[in-house]
Amino acid sequence: MRCPKAKKLISPYMDGELGPMERGHLESHIRECSQCGDLFKELSKVHEMFAGAQRFKAPYGFAGRVMSRVTARKTRNIFPIAGFARAAAVCFIIAAGITSGETTMKKLQPANKENMVSSLSLSSFDPAPPDSIGGAYLAMTEGDRED
Ligand SMILES: [Zn+2]
Fold first, then answer.
1. Average pLDDT for the chain
2. Distance 27 CA to ligand 1 centre (A)
3. Residue with the larger pLDDT of the pair 25 and 121
4. What does the pLDDT look like over 40-71, one tens digit per residue?
5. Rounded distance from Cα 34 to ligand 1 centre (Å)
6. Cα(28) to centroid(ligand 1), Å
7. Is the full-model pTM beyond 0.85?
8. What is the pLDDT of residues 104-143, one digit of tens each?
9. How many Å lie between the centroid of ligand 1 and the Cα of residue 101?
10. What is the pLDDT of residues 31-40, one digit of tens each?
11. If you measure from the C-alpha of residue 33 to the centroid of ligand 1, how many angstroms do you get, rounded to a whole number?
12. Cα 43 to middle of ligand 1, angstroms
């Protein structure tokens, strides 16, 4: 088994989704390959954290209330013209948003335009806080990133 396949199979392995043969191949690869072995250990920690997390029970009748709402929505959609009108309204709202966005961008001075465009880029988002589960996971997988 090669590393890319082994890395893909680690999570399904932890979830007990692999057959006996695939599981055996992965286990022997993890023993022999230090890189995949390290990744396996790191992901095991995350898996244990989630497995040990506190679980909350849904309030009594929750599933029944959700399903009755789903059924109510389905029966409301029996008139196709209402669906068409809704789709047309969505298209209109999107077109209006694009038009107003274009107008706004045209009115902006070049310096402001640059600030606005940079504020829309993904790099302006804050990474997950380091003390959160997501932050811990990112910190552990940081070594695997190639950029
Ligand atoms: Zn490997």
1. 80
2. 11
3. 25
4. 999 999 888 888 888 888 888 898 999 999 88
5. 7
6. 10
7. no
8. 767 766 666 566 666 666 655 566 666 777 777 777 776 6
9. 48
10. 999 999 999 9
11. 5
12. 14
Which has more pLDDT, 116 or 21? 21
Ligand 1 centroid distance, CA of 24 (Å): 14
d(CA 114, CA 13): 47
- Decide: 100 and 106 in contact? Cβ < 8 Å: no
Tokens coding 71: 């059924």
Q: Using a CB cutoff of 8 Å and minimum separation of 24, what contacts does 42-45 make?
A: 42/140, 42/141, 43/10, 43/11, 43/14, 43/140, 44/14, 45/140
Are 43 and 14 spatial neighbours (Cβ–Cβ below 8 Å)?
Answer: yes
Query: What ranges in 15-109 are assigned the alpha helix state H?
Result: 20-32, 34-51, 62-76, 80-107
Sorted by where each begins, the domain ranges of the chain are 3-55, 62-122
Cβ(6)–Cβ(26) under 8 Å? yes
* 22 CA from centroid of ligand 1 (Å): 14
Find the radius of gyration of the CA atoms of the chain: 25
Residue 39 alpha carbon to ligand 1 centre in Å: 9
